[in-house]
Amino acid sequence: MILGCTNEKNYIPMESDSVGGQGGRGQGLVVGVKEELDLNPALKSTSSSKKAKAERLALSAEKLVTPIGFMYAYRVFTKALEIDPNNGRARFYQAFLRPAMELRGLITRVEPLVKRLDARAQKRFYDFRDKMAEGGLKEFLLAGQPDISNEIESQNWVKGVYQAQTEFRQFLRENKDLVFDITMNKTEQGNKVYERCAVIEVEPNVFQLPKCPYITELKKSINRADLEVFQQATAGLQIYFMMMTGYDYTGAIDTDQLQKKEDWDSIQVNEYLKTLEGWGDLRKDHDFADFKGLGVDLLGGIKWAYRLKKVLCPKGASNVDNRPGYLFDYGLCIREKVD
């Protein structure tokens, strides 16, 4: 799910140092320009209260919450919170985008690891990198050092994403009373978005937003039910990430390459893995202690949804329009009571 982009023009303040640089000064978009978002005039504005300025900033930042502009949006929401730390919209988006910010520099960082893969996998990786439209996202993903070369280093990166997910889930637990409207972008044909569309910072605090044919703008509302869905979905992702980082997987890449070369079956692969020292050992920095908390969150959300099923699922589980106008419009449908 991607959030972002309204049509009206807003002016809001930002710091001049950009995430990913001033991507694309003088560069052209592959597709047409939808609008220019100039954030500088509000830097000089003294007519608004801090609360009003922060909300104006946060509303305008939604324009940048897309698969190709989220890194700029994060910077704007951070600025909004410097002005008003209590702005709910900016707090939600900043927490929501934190995991995505762990992608900074990732394409460059994983190059040493990619070079250990087979030729076909390397080609897919470099084709994706080279076909990306020039702009902020490409600069953001390339802005790193080649420092991930093995399984442990890649797992350490995943742990960073896991910690950011924890921050988002904690925010949702503590702010269930948030209610606000958002502008959401429905994205289709993901690879083409990255190849043909780009948000460009043409000069400090001035952004060109693309007229991207693969992004459809929708207006939605958010309340506690939507936040519960976010919380449970994040918990599910964390369980997956927990398994990815809980054990030592050193040797997985070489094993995969050998399996392809020798055409091993699953039994041969398992026998080889048994010969690797440390393979499958529990990591000292595992996060399995968090599992109980994730389960408590899940159970609490299910019980809450069941109590309010007449409101959250009035038309039944088979109906996809239980909550028209809300972000998760299909509803929260719990059929049986959970004790």
Walk me through the structure.
- There is one protein chain.
- By secondary structure, this protein is mainly α.
- It has two domains: about 1-220, no CATH class; about 225-245 and about 280-339, no CATH class.
- The protein has helices at about 50-60, 70-85, 90-100, 105-110, 110-115, 120-130, 135-140, 150-175, 190-195, 225-245, 250-260, 265-275, 290-305, 310; strands spanning about 1-5, 35-40, 180-185, 200-205, 205-210, 215-220.
- Strands 1-3-6 form a three-stranded antiparallel β-sheet, covered by helices on one side. It has a three-stranded antiparallel β-sheet with strand order 2-5-4, with no helix packed on it.
- α3 (about 90-100) packs antiparallel against α8 (about 150-175) and α11 runs antiparallel to α12.
- The chain starts with a strand and ends in a 27-residue tail after the last helix.
- The model is unreliable at about 1-30 (pLDDT under 50).
